[in-house]
Amino acid sequence: MKTATFALAGMLGLAAGLMATPGSATAADQLVGNASAGQSTMESVCALCHGVDGNSMDPQYPKLAGQHANYLAYQIESFKSGQRSNSIMSGMAAMLSKQDIANVAAYLSQQKTSPGPTNSYEPALGKSIYVNGIAAAGLPSCESCHGADGLGDSNKMYPRIAGQHAQYVMQVLTGWHNGEAWGDSPHAKLVVEVAKKLTIEQIHAVSSYVQGLNAGK
Ligand code: HEC
Ligand code: HEC
């Protein structure tokens, strides 16, 4: 059963010319989440940093509201397995069962992302990087994977980034720029290669643009 799923996911990936997407391989294994149980977990454990509905007030903590359920589950599993390392989140993820993860992911994916303050730092530069990339540096546009509205694509496990705190986006991109990675899968490397090609100044500008992307919803 499992082998068949993997083989099929592989064929589809090949047909579409994609690299291995973690979501397509695990979709069949995913549990159905119970959103109200997920809300209880958020209230009792996660709200301190992420807010009850996943709209964190403190910009060092990512907003989780409105993120794709499969992406949330994938990231929590990654903290659990150590593929993505963070001292706070590995402890949090260790406490959650597969069902808890599915519940939290279902609840959060149904919440509305709070709008981010509009683009303020080097707005023209940030927009240009997001929309066009930088051809001379071999940099693809952010839009080519995350979409013009920043809503990503759950089928390809491309996260929603619209409205995310600029401080968090900067933190993540700067880490990748400096050689960190969320594991060594081809999927994780897609955006790491992008971050390596950006300067810190460009990261600052594009992070500000991402925070101000509120058009999608
Ligand atoms: C003490 C603060 C704290 C608590 C409590 C906490 N988190 Fe986090 N969370 C963080 C930090 C910090 C990060 C960013 C880690 C990094 O930079 O890699 C994060 C990242 C995440 C991410 C990845 C988001 C992304 O955009 O990639 C998810 C999903 C997440 N947390 C879910 C949860 C859930 C579910 C709980 C409750 C069970 C929880 N967190 C509790 C601090 C916290
Ligand atoms: C080739 C496709 C691709 C391009 C181009 C790309 N990304 Fe990504 N991005 C991804 C993937 C895939 C992930 C998830 C990585 C993982 O799961 O380890 C991601 C994750 C992210 C995250 C972390 C989201 C979170 O909270 O977990 C941010 C922030 C981000 N990208 C911003 C950008 C910006 C800004 C650009 C343009 C400068 C960009 N990306 C260009 C594919 C891409």
Task: Explain what the structure shows.
54% of the residues lie in helices and 0% in strands. With 217 residues, the protein is mostly helical. The chain folds into 2 domains: 21-109, Cytochrome c-like domain (Cytochrome Bc1 Complex, Chain D, domain 2, Orthogonal Bundle), CATH 1.10.760.10; 123-211, Cytochrome Bc1 Complex, Chain D, domain 2 (Orthogonal Bundle). The longest helix is centred in the first third of the chain and has 16 residues, at 35-50. The protein is globular, with a radius of gyration of 17 Å. The N and C termini lie far apart (38 Å). The model is unreliable at 1-20 (pLDDT under 50). It binds heme C (2 copies). One heme C (HEC) is lined by residues 41, 45-46, 48-50, 61-62, 64, 72, 75-76, 86, 88-89, 92, 96, 104.
